[in-house]
Amino acid sequence: MRRVCFLLKVRQERLAEYRECHTAVWADMLEALSAAGWHNYSLFVRDDGLLVGYLETEDFAAAQAAMAATDVNTRWQTRMAPFFESLDGAKPDEAVRPLQEVFHLD
């Protein structure tokens, strides 16, 4: 299982609304993530908008591709895009750049 961590930046003035959206993630989005191989997936956000995402998956590229092929992901990413800074026209899931893991205590 590969551990994947990434950073994004939520617009500070939209933080409350972003948090609210994640209190009730659509059921079909949750099902799609699980079916695509996204496990132990968490999002953490600081008050300045720094977002840290973490997930575990067998094959991250395959998990991303499986999500990209779903209609629910297209709708969710379109809904979430206005919350983020510096996407340069990409959807949030397209802007994810995994961090290099340098240490892990099992």
UniProtKB/TrEMBL annotation:
The UniProt entry's GO biological process terms, in alphabetical order, are:
rhamnose catabolic process
SUPFAM superfamilies, per the entry: Dimeric alpha+beta barrel (SSF54909)
Its transmembrane ranges are none
EC no. given is 5.1.3.32
- State the UniProt keywords alphabetically: Isomerase
The organism's place on the tree of life at top rank: Bacteria
Query: What's a single GO MF annotation on this record?
Result: L-rhamnose mutarotase activity
Name the chain's protein: L-rhamnose mutarotase
Could you tell me which species this protein originates from? Answer: Streptomyces smaragdinus
Gene this protein is translated from: rhaM
